[in-house]
Write the structure tokens for this entry.
Amino acid sequence: MEATVEAPVVEPYMGPRGIWGWLTTVDHKRIGLLYGVSALVFFVIGGIEALLIRLQLAGPDLEVLSAEAYNQLFTMHGLTMVFLVIMPIAAAFTNYFLPIMLGARDVAFPRLNAFSYWLFLGSGIFIYSSFFLGGAPDGAWVGYAPLSTQLVEVVRIDFWIIGLQLLGIASIVSSANFIATAFTMRAPGMSMLRMPVFAWMALVVAFLLIFSIPAVSIGLFQMFLDRNLGTLFYAAEAGGDPLLWQHLFWIFGHPEVYVLILPAMGIVSEILPVFSRKPLFGYPFIVFSGAAIGFVGFGVWSHHMFTSGMGPVAEAGFGIATMVIAVPTGVKIFNWLGTVWGGRVRLQAPMLYSLAFIAMFVIGGLSGVTHAIIPADTQQHDTYYVVAHFHYVLFGGAVFGYVAGVYYWFPKWTGKMLSEGIGKLQFWLMLVGFNLTFGPMHILGLNGMPRRTYRYGEGLGWDFWNLMATTGAFLIAFSVLIFIYNIVKSRRSGIPAGDDPWDGRTLEWTISSPPPVHNFDEVPVVRSLDDFWHRKYSEDEDGRPVVIAEIEEGMGADGGEEVQIENIHMPSPSYYPVLTSAGLVCAGFGFAYLGLGGWIVVGTGILIAMWGFFGWSLEPVTREH
């Protein structure tokens, strides 16, 4: 195929270097890296909180923490891991790879993307500043009324309310951005059913957030008014309804579980075919089962409330819905197993974590289905059995899936390979530590240990299993230290990866490692699902892959000679997103301390945010350099 080769590609100017460059970047890849590093920092902080909790519970009648400190750490650990670790690490993968997988040069709204990240980071800092301003939130991550509406002179819960509202804004604008990107910026020829599974799961998650966050935002707004302006939405003695908060929270909170796990499912769905050297078994079923999980996920929220007295009709309905949602989940599991079955499996670190994801998620899913049995749920409710269940889903599932994604895509981020030997050592330490920590919690829960107790006496049968759980927690911590060491060491001196070290199937492996600012020198043309794989291989009569030709450097994304394009225009860097975010966080501090001084801070923050918004709207989209 003949093509006109013009002057060399002119790399678009992306602004200043150094710290100012990171503050003003609108490049989706750099924003993805910022999300990832921030999530890792919060993961370490949340892990330290978990270790302190486990030290307090390692034996009977210990006094490592006071009851007040325990409640604060207990609350902050859950809040951190859900909102500041697992959600942003999913955003990190989505930011970095969604445009590249779709054949786009950036997301639909680059500056809105930057705004979302800086508001997320500012919200995390805002919430953690509470430790230095009178104490951290202490009402558990669910914030049940009326406990959360009492003690209005203490602002701890207000930090929780305002911080979650700000995080909700960040999630909604990010979700709208991803939806627009997936619908409008796919490469020519990439139909919806040619999108990679990870892109599909990111799209489903974006819709889940768009539809679920408004419910909890209304509940948080009402709670703030109850605490600060004397309204009575959740005051039972004045005709309010504390259960209203539970409904509003769990209408968000149960779809939120799938917000956390679906991107990890998408990552695993990308890894298994590559390391099995087979196409993904039942691609349409995996895609539509993911969408079904998102849809049915809105109809199961009240299985968190079986002990609240809803009545037998509501309990039966939500119990059935909880069983139904296991069906599309099971479809995914059998399709993953079908992908591995009969393949030429390579048990490298990404594959090991993906297989562990399946096994741990099955355990967590089975223990979750027991909550659909209402008498069993009544026994298990608010015990450590529930803690074991959601950690098998969110750690054994989500975290294992995201770590698999780090090992899989680290070469694309950095151009270097993570150490395989260190990776396998870390895998076994994390797997053993995880099961040693959370496996015994099933037994503790069935033996009656409440989930929110900070001390327990001797002779209850809980001593040994709590000691095992604490030992496992420190083993997990050691594995995380090894993980961080592997990242730092490999980033500096790892083996060069090349552009396609795993023999990948999707478009991100067609470009250099790390990718250029503009992603693609020419917009790729997609002719099939797993288009890159089909350009590399055909099949013989027995269905085995046969190499067509090596993909030489200089080949274009459509398989022809690369057409050099001059002066690719990319969005210019901007400081307005970070300025706007700073204004909203400043206003948040004012709302936490209402009064004359508080309203002045609110006004100042709003003015800063308006300055950012107006500057943002008047700023040119691109500049000539």
